[in-house]
Amino acid sequence: MRTIMLIAVVVVGTGMLAAGAMLTGAEEGTQAAEANPQIDYDGFVKQVQEVAKVREQRRVSEDEFIRMLNDPDTIVLDARSKRMYDLLHVKGAVHLSLPDMTEDELAELIPAKDTRVVIYCNNNFKNEPLAFATKAKVASLNLNTYNTLYSYGYRNIYELKPLLDRHQTKIPFAGTSVEAD
Questions:
Q1: Vertex 167, ends 163 and 172: CA angle to 5°?
Q2: Which residues pair with 105 in a beta bridge?
């Protein structure tokens, strides 16, 4: 009797494994059929590797950032939320929130793709926990903004490199928190 039960358990168990394997194959087929042609993770990874080769050479010091900020042919871009931009931003920076970046929105703000664009993010400034709340290092807005601009064909991109004390930097700021002071 035990032998018959053991055989029954093995047969049922094997059948369940086979059914599970068939289900997994069916799920893969469904996922392939539902693939989204507007999302390309492999392309994203490839581009990140390409950007890594040029980005490090395009990171600038505080003094170089200020020099570029004062150049009328340079656009300083703030990609944080509108609320944080309104609260505090680099004086002279233009705003376009990262989630709002599309080809059309970028073309309206930066018509020529060879325009020099300089970016900064929360992780460039310390001692300003509300307007420049620190992000996880791998989620730094500079990384995403640089890659997004590159995705849309902008190649003349620079990035503020150092971590600066918001109250000691020479970089000028504007926004409602500055007006309140």
A1: 85
A2: none
Q: Report the C-alpha gap between 123 and 139 in whole angstroms.
A: 10
pTM of the full structure: 0.80
Q: For 34-46, write each residue's pLDDT tens digit.
A: 899 999 999 999 9
Q: Are 114 and 120 in contact, with CB atoms under 8 Å apart?
A: no
Token pair recorded at residue 114: 């060879």
8 by Cβ neighbours in 10 Å (0-12 / 13-18 / 19+) ranks as: exposed
CA 174, chain centre distance (Å): 24
Phi, psi of 120 (to 5 degrees): -150, 170
Q: What is the pLDDT of residues 47-70, one digit of tens each?
A: 999 999 999 999 999 999 999 999
How many residues are present in the chain?
181
d(CA 118, CA 111): 15
Considering only CA atoms, which of 147, 159, 121 is closest in space to residue 49? 147
The residue type found at 89 is H
Sheet with 157-160: list strands edge to edge.
59-60, 157-160, 116-120, 74-78, 94-95
